[in-house]
Amino acid sequence: MSLRSDLPPFQPRFPWWNGDLQTIANRLRGVDTLASHSSERLKFPLPDGTGDTLLASLDQPATPRAGAPLAILIHGLTGSEDSRYIFSMARLLLDRGSRVLRLNLRGAGPSRVVCGQHYYAGRSQDFRALLSVLPEELTADGVVAVGYSLGGAMLLKYLGEEGRAAPLLAAASVSAPIDLAVTCRYMMRPRNRLYHRYILDQMKVEATGEGAVVSATERIAIMGSRTVWDYDDFFIAPRYGFASAEDYYERCRPTRFMGGIGIPTLVLASFDDPWIPGTLYREYDWAQNPSLTPVLTEHGGHVGFHGIGNRQPWSDLLVARFFENG
């Protein structure tokens, strides 16, 4: 895979001039239908003894393209198969003839009611389990994957763990927090208080929703958390075998694993992302792994990339071109 293309460099489109506006644009506008393509619900029971089941939507293109790989889309924190950035990428790929699997992580979106457990950035074993049970009819032409934000962090961790054995043709991450502790501190800055409050409130709703198995002590810890760090320190860390939030962040940060990635992987991020500090991407040694293709832009926000010349987010066009150039 490569980026041999005539896609112009990203330039923000009016009125989304800065990183904050690029970020909130996804909440204000976007694709919310996949007609005339068709969709069906797929269920993937997880083989870990929990009884949890991942739910996904399989989208079939109205006009299939022979040889097109299945594309798996993985949402970010408090997202789901119905997140607008997922719909946007799905529609572009469907219009170009690819089948798309919009995955709900464990306990996210419609998977909440059939999962007692919950996803987190390091839970790459769930994605591994999903790939192992996908029907051959879906994987015969290969598989590619795109992860957004937390979903991108999880995907990069998985790819590093698997190396060249990863059963994917290619992958891409968009606005992934490649260092979890640094990103969490950055999110908790005073200038991000509205973002932080919104995300934390959504996390609490998600973690305690119908189907979630939480003890009374855990429920108190979740609802009493004043920051995302508290939530991870008091709930995620003890629940899933980490000594603390700091331990969880350190053991699961993607930069620990990215050197081991062995398949072509696009890594897209913007330096004006209000949630993730650009220094993480500026200072990473990309030359150490030729399987990584970094595309780092001055503007674009967090999972934004609403650019001039096209209503389709520039990130969608870039990812699709990366996959098609293989």
**Within the CATH hierarchy, at the fold level, what is the topology of the largest domain?**
Rossmann fold
> With helices defined by DSSP (H or I, 4 residues minimum), what is the helix count?
12
Q: Roughly how many Å is the radius of gyration?
A: 19 Å
What would you call the shape? globular
* Helical residues, percent: 25-40%
For the record, the CATH class of the largest domain is Alpha Beta
- Which architecture of the largest domain would the CATH scheme give at its second level? 3-Layer(aba) Sandwich
Secondary structure: number of strands: 8
Total individual domains = 2
CATH superfamily of the largest domain: Alpha/Beta hydrolase fold, catalytic domain
Largest sheet: 8 strands, mixed
Q: How are the strands of the largest sheet arranged?
A: 1-2-4-3-5-6-7-8
Segments where pLDDT lies below 50 for 5+ residues? Answer: none
Q: Report the structural category.
A: alpha/beta
Order of helices and strands: HEEEHEHHEHEHHHHHEHEH
What would the average pLDDT be, to the nearest integer?
96
Provide the β-strand percentage band: 5-15%
**N- to C-terminal distance:** 4 Å
Structural commentary:
By secondary structure, the chain is an alpha/beta fold. It has helices at 19-28, 84-95, 124-133, 136-139, 150-162, 180-187, 193-207, 216-224, 228-239, 245-252, 279-283, 314-324, and strands at 38-45, 53-60, 70-74, 100-103, 143-148, 170-174, 265-270, 292-297. The protein folds into 2 domains: 19-179 and 253-324, Alpha/Beta hydrolase fold, catalytic domain (Rossmann fold), CATH 3.40.50.1820; 188-252, no CATH class. It has an 8-stranded mixed sheet. Helix 9 (228-239) packs across helix 10 (245-252).
